[in-house]
Amino acid sequence: MRKLFFILGIVIGFVPNISWATALKPQGKFIQKNIKIAQEVQFCLSIRHPKNIELVFPDSSFDFSPLEFVSKEYFTTKSDSSTSIDSAVYTLTTYEIDELQTLRMPIYILNGKDSVVTWSDTDTLFFLTTVGKMPNPIVLQQNTSLQRIEYDFNYYYFFTGLIILLIVVGVSLFLFKNNLRVLYYSWKLDYQYNRFLKQFEAKKEFQNTQELQELVWIWKKFLGKLEQQPIETYTTKDLMEFYYDNKLNEALQKIDYCLYAEPTNIDANELLNFGKHIVEQKKQALTNGK
Hints:
The protein is an alpha+beta fold. The protein is built from 7 helices and 10 strands. It is 45% helix and 23% strand.
């Protein structure tokens, strides 16, 4: 019996707290009445209560369906001699397309270790659609002209490809540098010989000793580039000592006889053939790695 009276005492003591707690009615309403998809709206929640009461407003964990939480702004409590006003503004958005979207929110009134929930009235938002009413049947507009699409330049792939290309080129140069060296200098020798050949052919049919001197100078200049020596300044004796070639010696002696003694018929092909022979020697030396 004593235990029964104890329980009744607790219930009787708690009922007044529940009665005044439920009497406190929060005010909740949307500041805007219309909303579009992904547009933000504000919901204002406030309550007037006795100064000695502690309250807790909902945070981002509350279920705002069909809306979604964006942010919350809480305002400082305003009080007079006996009552206080607490308020907060919730910024919400929606991705639902229901024409009517409603919301009501709670405020938790603390009573010792327990709490009492009091709810605001339900307020309504009107969803504004951006798509007009579709005609039936739908009339499609034909447009067969192609629209140019601008693509953004992908710098990541560009620089990645450039780095890979540089690595491949670097490795190739390292592995095949000797072969590339032979190819390059062989091409250079052929290029020099072809230039010399054009100049030599233009002067080969000389008519006097001056033209013969010009022909010999062209030949010497070509040999100088091949040997990287000042052969243009070499005399016939110097050339004979430098090359030790019997056919060349005979050709040079005939040229000297024609220039300084008696003009005779000179076969300039001997000089041309010797120049080609030197080019082949240089190319063979490159192939042998000398």
